[in-house]
């Protein structure tokens, strides 16, 4: 690794300060993804339930996030990941401020798109910065912390948002995002002190050559499976609980802790296990996660008005574990398969598939569910309200949900088979990347 531009070798203290800034900003991204959908029923009451615009609050963010990751990955390789990160924090903060004061659904959608564009810079810049600025055990610990904070944001998102909505209304969610981001922006100057690799003068935004590496492609499939089998439920399960069992936003958010706490707890547990059992690698952890996600999708079929809500506790735990187990190892493992000078582009590509799959499958989830609601006899007049999660028609919501759940289960199994084939090929046909030594 070469030291370049405005940097000199740094001490442990500045590195810790930089990591703290990265994690503070990164916390808001999963918090936003996980928590915004909890407010959809409340937003629909205040600003209207027009389906396209209402779903744009979630889908607009996700689509902008996905499409922007490729661009930000290449930008990070040129201007430096730290600068890309800082620009992203600023954009998300502005988007959050506009979200908090939005008078209409259209303005709120625009604000969420802006936040999505900035979030792509935050996560891409953060991933590339950690990869290039840390080595060996320090890098593994930094990625483990990165995964843990992602888990914390996902765990806190529905619950914190539900509490804020119950006490202060849905706009308070975006006010909290703004406060956290402004704190991170104030500390982002510390990133300039990090050692950095030389900027890359050229290179494609979408480096297809990276996808020819079976190890990199295998690791890319893991966040895609997580998007299918976890993020879809994370986004719309609170609305389902309100529609099917009559939960309030706060009550749904509180119950979501059952699903999101495993996301928080899994990364440090995996870090501890891998440090003491060298034969347990990223492939084994990822395969276990895929099994959990597939079982969870089947278990959610118990989400019915006539079935006590406690029957879905185990599927919620399995879904959280399936997403959380590989959370602290996917990024580091994927980037270890590519040349270090392409880490920004690789991070952008990885996050394109991660966020792109989230955008795709969350939107598909909503579209199939809405179509299922409208297809039922006598539901035409209440379809928008039911799809938004407003209570009173749990049987209609449940009938529309069943085919969605089966589709999720099949998709996770297919992705699991693809991962296993690719990962085995990577281990067989080429020297595996140097395993990160995560023993302190």
Q: How would you describe this protein?
A:
The chain is mainly alpha-helical and 440 residues long. It has a single domain (12-196, 204-429), classed as Growth Hormone, Chain: A (Up-down Bundle), CATH 1.20.1250.20. Helix content is 76%, strand content 0%. It contains 17 helices and no strands. It has helices at 12-36, 40-47, 51-79, 81-100, 105-133, 136-168, 171-187, 208-211, 214-245, 249-255, 257-276, 282-299, 313-324, 330-335, 343-374, 383-387, 394-429. The longest helix is centred in the C-terminal third of the chain and has 36 residues, at 394-429. The protein starts with 11 loop residues before the first helix and ends in an 11-residue tail after the last helix. Mean pLDDT is 79; it is low at 1-13 and 432-440.
Short description:
The protein is built from 17 helices and no strands. The chain is mainly alpha-helical and 440 residues long.
């Amino acid at each position: 690794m070469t030291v370049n531009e405005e940097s000199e070798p740094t001490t442990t203290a500045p590195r810790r300060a930089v990591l703290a800034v990265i994690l503070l900003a990164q916390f808001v991204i999963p918090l936003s993804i996980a928590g915004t959908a909890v407010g959809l029923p409340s937003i629909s009451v205040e600003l209207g339930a027009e389906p396209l615009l209402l779903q744009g609050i979630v889908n607009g963010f996700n689509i902008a996030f996905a499409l922007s990751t490729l661009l930000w990955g290449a930008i990070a390789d040129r201007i430096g990941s730290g600068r890309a990160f800082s620009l992203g924090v600023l954009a998300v903060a502005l988007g959050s401020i506009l979200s908090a004061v939005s008078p209409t659904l259209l303005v709120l959608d625009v604000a969420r798109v802006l936040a999505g564009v900035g979030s792509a810079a935050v996560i891409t810049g953060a991933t590339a910065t950690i990869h290039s600025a840390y080595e060996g055990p320090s890098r593994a610990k930094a990625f483990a912390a990165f995964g843990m904070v992602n888990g914390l944001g996902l765990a806190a998102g529905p619950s914190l948002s539900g509490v804020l909505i119950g006490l202060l209304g849905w706009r308070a969610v975006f006010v909290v995002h703004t406060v956290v981001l402004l704190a991170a922006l104030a500390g982002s100057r510390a990133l300039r002190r990090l050692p950095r690799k030389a900027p890359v003068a050229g290179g494609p935004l979408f480096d297809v050559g990276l996808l020819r590496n079976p190890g990199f492609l295998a690791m890319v499939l893991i966040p895609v499976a997580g998007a299918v089998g976890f993020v879809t439920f994370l986004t719309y399960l609170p609305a389902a609980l309100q529609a099917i069992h009559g939960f309030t936003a706060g009550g749904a958010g509180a119950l979501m802790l059952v699903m999101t706490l495993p996301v928080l707890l899994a990364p440090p547990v995996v870090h501890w296990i891998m440090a003491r059992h060298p034969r347990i690698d990223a492939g084994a952890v990822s395969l276990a996660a895929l099994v959990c996600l597939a079982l969870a999708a089947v278990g959610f079929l118990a989400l019915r008005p006539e079935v006590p809500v406690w029957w879905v506790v185990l599927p919620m735990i399995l879904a959280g574990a399936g997403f959380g187990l590989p959370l602290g190892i996917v990024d580091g493992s994927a980037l270890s398969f590519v040349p270090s000078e392409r880490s920004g582009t690789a991070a952008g590509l990885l996050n394109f598939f991660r966020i792109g799959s989230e955008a795709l499958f969350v939107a598909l989830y909503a579209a199939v569910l809405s179509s299922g609601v409208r297809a039922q006899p006598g539901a035409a007049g209440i379809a928008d309200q039911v799809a938004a999660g407003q209570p009173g028609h749990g049987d209609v919501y449940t009938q529309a949900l069943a085919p969605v759940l089966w589709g999720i289960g099949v998709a996770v199994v297919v992705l699991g088979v693809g991962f296993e084939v690719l990962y085995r090929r990577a281990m067989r046909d080429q020297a595996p990347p140097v395993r990160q030594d995560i023993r302190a």
